[in-house]
């Protein structure tokens, strides 16, 4: 869902709009090195075969969360790799090649990596163990500590709040049972105050963009509609994370599905979500998909953000409107996902799940199997009266008594840092 990407990141992932790809990327020089190639030195627990410098924690978090959503128990070493990326302060960075080296002032922990990791770890119930609970608590504490005065979050601590980062953090904190509606900044502002300030008002001058969300204001303080940010903003104002369950009876009043733009320049969070959903319906009404907002790629379909739009529309109680972009994805997203890797498969699984669609028969493709093929083999499915570990040990005994089950203890390792997008970037931000 994030439009800001450096040329290096685009080359590395070959993705346009990969779901909730980190929001704020640094400026990249035109002479930046071309696409990083697959490395034989990648950790065995990591999903994907491309250079993880910019997206290691992000794609791992989405892969684990998508497998859990599809009823698959991820490999223990894949979960351990993710927890091992956490810094002692609780934050995650895009990727740390040497997790044994303590995080320091040069380690760029960020809200997007931390938020995605927190959503994955809470879904997997890692907090059921003492070490896992400590990891979750530390991540929550770190995210709270970097909340901006306006109530929101930027990609990097201290950076200007943006819709995408704020929404990712809201979803993560909600997953960790944090009351985001009463989470107030030093200026007594909530995360929802920050999001509402980034929503284009209804009424005169808004045209067809009223109700959309901007990523950030431009240098003059003007808000520009951004479909990527709007999909994120809908989920954020509803307090939803990356995964939205279908037919949720406790869903926000945004599920009324009203057309148009409500609330004028002072909408409630529910109205803002409904307004954003209405904008997205219009954005995909013609072709069934969004188009890339990236320079030089404007005429290309934006597969990832189209998947995010499906999730957002389902979360806003508009599953019928999600049908057209979903059908387009089922027909057209296969090559994109294969080229893009685990995060892309995860995005499609989230879209399928949100609409009650079988991810194992998504336009004839088994997304769960395809995702699984990008990383370590999942744990065996549980049998009646047995968990996956029992089943695996039993199978090993039949092969000669040598168990292949092993667990690298999941825990918060002091000084271990996580990288979420960029390990070598400037802090200068560009407007989309």
TrEMBL record:
Keywords: Membrane, Metal-binding, Signal, Transmembrane, Transmembrane helix
Annotated spans, Disordered: 26-48, 239-272, 374-398
Pfam families from the UniProt entry: SQHop_cyclase_C
Organism field: Streptomyces ortus
Protein name: Squalene cyclase C-terminal domain-containing protein
Signal peptide interval: 1-26
Every Squalene cyclase C-terminal domain range: 114-162
TM regions (residue ranges): 403-422
Biased segments, Basic and acidic residues type: 383-392
